[in-house]
Amino acid sequence: MKPLIIVVVAALTLGACANEAFIDEVERAPNSEILEAGRLGTTQLVAGDCFSERPGSAVRSVDAVPCGEPHRGQVLGRVSSEQSDTWPGVESLTAEAGPLCMRLAGDRLAPHLSDNLGLPMFGLSAYIPDESAWDDGDRSIVCWAEAVEPVAIDLRTVIPA
After folding, report:
1. Angle at 41 (CA atoms; ends 73, 87), nearest 5 degrees
2. Residues 21, 60: contact at Cβ < 8 Å?
């Protein structure tokens, strides 16, 4: 297996819009771990959630699964945009999300990159709020690790907290 590699993906996907972003069809344990697969809106994603993206250019919901099942993404965490109250636009949020998510990934993963964990290759991606969500007060950017090939691992179990 290839080592874990983090690369910022330039194309970030709008993550919140309309009601689809608020869908929550998963069953969770008391510790928030996903027990049963289902659709999950991007605004409902929490650190540790595993999922595969649904088709489309503006992703508003994902197919969430327990991390032991094949998936392509795992949420590393959320960061808050430091932009003003006025909608900054996709380009501005995308430019801001890259460094914020890279810093989050570096804090969580960098200390373990030299370890021989036998992990597959991952990239770094993010969901940013769209204008409607922004106007509703959502300033959160969801940072997530994107596997090149489907995996059935939970990064939290192979990378110490």
Report:
1. 100
2. yes
Instruction: Name the 3-class secondary structure at 151.
Output: strand
Residue 129 has pLDDT above 70, yes or no: yes
Q: How far apart are the first and last CA of the chain?
A: 22
- 40, 24 Cβ separation under 8 angstroms: yes
In sequence order, the β-bridge partners of residue 41 are 61
Place of tokens 């008391």: 30
| Both structure tokens of 154 | 């939970």
pTM of the complete model: 0.82
CA 94, chain centre distance (Å): 14
**What residue segments make up the domains of the chain, in order of their start?**
13-158
C-alpha span between 17 and 126 (Å, rounded):
15
